[in-house]
Model the fold of this input.
Amino acid sequence: MPSAWVLTNVAIIVISVLSGLLFFYIISPLTKTKKKQQLEEIISLLINFVIFIWIGKVLLNLSVFVEDPLAILAYPSNSHAFYVAVLFLIINVGYKAKRKNTDTIPLLASFVPVFLGASFVYEFIDIMWNDSTLAWGHLLLLIVLTFIYVFVHEKISSLSAAGGFFVGWSLGQLLLSFILPFTTLFGYMMDRWFLIATVVISLALLTYHNRRNVS
Done:
């Protein structure tokens, strides 16, 4: 039944996110107080992201929502709603950085291991539970990135580790998109333009901050 499938998928995502949070807590060199603070901010960020996905789903199906608001619940979230949520999340983080003078670099650095752990567990479950052969490419990419991240994240700056990771992940996914029929992230299909945009934005942020630090 569709409802059972939705509940199963939600359960897998929740397990994956919890695994990512645990992975961050284990490998992070921060103190317990700092870890707790970063976990609270990341969880807040994830809650906002879920809300933004729902907002994206409403905006993309506005006519349906106006006629029958409850009917929107039956519409599955697609990659377009995911992109809308990412855009809103960037705006949200940018607002905190500009208006509230929040340093987003530690948050971005803490988010990387959460993303790594959650993505790895999700793809692993997808292979074991759903026998998904397409998930192998992303899983292998995550294994490589995890090993690299674990060995270098304490030897380079937080920004370089985070920016380098997202550049590597986006390039890896972009390469997989030419090899496989499609690539996904937590079940959402990733378009090439989105992956290219992630590479460009990550490189731009790295360049900007490196130049600012030099000057």
In short: Helices lie at 2-27, 32-60, 62-67, 79-99, 104-130, 135-152, 158-179, 192-214.
